[in-house]
UniProtKB/TrEMBL annotation:
SMART domains: Ami_3
GO terms (BP aspect): peptidoglycan catabolic process
Name of protein: N-acetylmuramoyl-L-alanine amidase
Pfam family, one: Amidase_3
Gene Ontology molecular-function annotations: N-acetylmuramoyl-L-alanine amidase activity
MurNAc-LAA domain span: 71-173
Organism: Ureibacillus acetophenoni
CDD domains reported in the protein's UniProt record: MurNAc-LAA (cd02696)
Amino acid sequence: MNLITISPGHYLPGTGFHDLIDEVTEARKVVNRVVQLLRVASVGVIQVVDNTSTSSAQNLDYIITHHNKTSRKLDVSIHFNATSGRHDTGIGTEVLYQNDKMRSFANKVSQSISNASTLRNRGGKKRINLPFLYNTDQPAIIIEVCFVNSTVDVAIYKEKFEEICIAIANELIQFVKPGHPMIKMIPQTMSLEVPNVEDDSNSLELKSILDKTISTENFTESNLIDQLEEVLTNHEVIKRMIEKGISENTIDDVWLEKFENGLLTTSDLFGLTTLMVAATLK
């Protein structure tokens, strides 16, 4: 079950703020890592990325439409902020909200990022004129990780990237699943490129949260592709499949470790499920 839909702000690199770092490039890195952490924690998440728009208006429509197409409890957009000129002092992190019910949560997220990184805590900021906040139909926040034109902010962000992502992931988890175990440090063994399950491109690859997906060209029925993609984009279902194979002594527990560390491929899973089914025929 999906609980969170998250997206990086803007569309192609260079369409957001750009100074010491590029907002779009870094927002995508943060989203990719947060998505990985949420999936390892068995929290349903959908990632929306806009690679098709050619204007800000198109981008906002794309992001909002794709968020609203999903079933979820929380909408999140990741951004980086900027002021005029270059600054050699820290400016900080902040979280934007519109609905007053989200004020406390926005403050918590900002505080957690600050605690994890030493970025100055600017807190929750109410904004009533941001389309993402007033046009998404579930509770929503915009996380402004830091300022791209602050040498202090950027240095902290680069050094504390992982801690920042874990802090964000943990606060999102507690919003949608209060009391869920907190994420601690997890080895970053996966590429920061995470497959997007909400992407309108005409891809010939099977949608999968696993590494190294496969082509759809050799499938003879589109219905089978749809059914497979429902499984391959569901972290909890894949985990339960592997655990079942281990409990039945069909596969080794090393496969669960590979899955949790992001090293299991789509082909691996197909091979494992073939062995599991074959074992039932003996």
